[in-house]
TrEMBL record:
InterPro entries cross-referenced by the UniProt entry: aa-tRNA-synth_II/BPL/LPL, Biotin-prot_ligase_N, Biotin_CoA_COase_ligase, BPL_C, BPL_LPL_catalytic
Full protein name: Biotin--protein ligase-like isoform X2
Family statement drawn from the similarity comment of this UniProt entry: Belongs to the biotin--protein ligase family.
Ranges for domain BPL/LPL catalytic: 331-525
Region (Disordered): 1-22
Highest classification ranks of the organism: Eukaryota, Metazoa, Ecdysozoa, Arthropoda, Chelicerata
NCBIfam families on file: birA_ligase
Keywords: Ligase
Entry-linked PROSITE patterns: BPL_LPL_CATALYTIC (PS51733)
Amino acid sequence: MEHITGSIHAKTNEEPSLSQPVNKADTGCQGKFLNGEGHQNKPPNILVYTGEDGTSTCVKFNSIKENLLLCLLPDQYVIYLLKPQELTSSPWQDNAVLLVISSSNVPLEISETLNSFISKGGKIVNFCTELKLSILDIKIVATSEKTHLSCMNYQGSVVKLMKKSLRLDMSDCSLTSCMLLFQCDSDRKSMIYKLQNPTTKGFMILSQVHLELDALLLSSGEEEFKQLKQYNKERLEILQLLLSSYLDMLCGPGSQRSLTSGILLATSHEKLQEFLLSIKKFPQGKIPCSGFTLHFVDSLPDYWTPALLADKIPVCCKINDNTAELSFNLERYRSYLQTKVLGQIIIYFDVVSTTMTLLERFTNINGIVAISKYQTKGRGRGENEWLGPEGCAMFTLHVSFPLKSQLGQNMSFIQHLATLAIVQAVCDCPGYEDINLKIKWPNDIYYGSNIKVGGVLVNSSLSEGIVSCFIGCGVNIKNSNPTTCINDIIQFHSQANDSQLEQLTVEKFIAQTLTRLEDLISCFQIYGSSRILPLYYSYWLHSGQEVWLEESQEKATIQGLDEHGFLRVKTSLGNVSFQPDGNSFDMMQNLIRHKKLP
């Protein structure tokens, strides 16, 4: 075996350290939409493996996540903790653009999973962690368990960072190349390098210095803490450089948007007055919700600041009939809305944590909708997060109906009606019929079969025989990153067919979605699913698809939806139905798996 502890020898392709962090947004390398296969297909997930469990894991993960977010462009990536048991059991390999490893070591049984990830083109950045990877023909061994301050060259200056000394063992006949990225100031030993087998596109960045953790978690005393803090800016610059230049992440000045107050809007003066009358039962217009209070006021008080908006959210009821300065174009929205109930009352926010919890106290107001320009903590199914950048249509709608009704007896259909309404909002328009939008069971919107552009989340409650459903929708209308958007698809379709289809606006899309949803709900309440399913199947991805049932370990064929809206599959023993809340469908693997409770 060849031992590499200092400068990389014969297998090294040296490349000078870059002097400035590269912002891919400025290089024209953002992966613009070219065709159905040419765009980034993987979800924009960054996974972090710390190899630990318990409270310390949470603290460490939060520190890594915070440091990554300081380097990455806002609203481009979702960062999740990858637990040890999930490394070998969950289908994370097809759902991650980057794996960050920060642990003492990686067990051998996990190494095979990492080999598979790299063989599929996966990228890993390894901070000071012992592991063995056969695909790279390497074994990384710590020469000391202790970390120590070390000096590294950066932009012609010396930067002090916390280092863990590692030995990199490689066989003499190894094909793996080692590209030196950074080296030690005093003895010129390697600090950070890129390891890649030329037979695969995947690779690993190995760092002997901790760039991912704050000084507080690394220092053993006050003096170490002060020295690490002194070079905190440079540490983050180096981390950003690795992410942007070598790992192809979209980087820039990370920042957290400040929450804003809300604005009450209505399609007519009469609708507005009806709503204001309905909330008079709440003293001083204060409506307590889960973890926060909505405060309806005539105008924003002077003492309101963004810092207060986490738990006290004002909603302005009077805007002097002037909506010209709003980010949301009410007139455009109103011109496309053709409903009797849905979407007539709007609570609008420029920036909100999530719209899913804003309407929970409005169960008596059918059709009220909360809309936001940005969301800082958008929600997906289970523990998933939903990115909420500008250009997405993000809203939550409240719909109520009797329990003793067609929809009340088959509530699972509400999410199917919502996904169908979203697709129809685009594809029902003249000239847009061939836009290739599809429905993935149970609640996702796809372009073709592999690019997700939106999704639906439904929470429901029952009170006095009335079902209240809160339907959250998030669809990327006009933001080309991090994956693709509806307007990219429309533009591509126009170019391919020599046409000039008009680009969608968020207001038009939401209005048309609500219009079609109201029609679909009305149709379902009268005729049940018989008139809905032919429309639904014309857009969904799964008719006749063969899948593997993980729990029963057998093949099955998807038949469609049963009378309750559950997924029906044909097995060797007959037809079986799967509820959406208890199961998930991994399209990459054609796999239906039972979702385990945490």
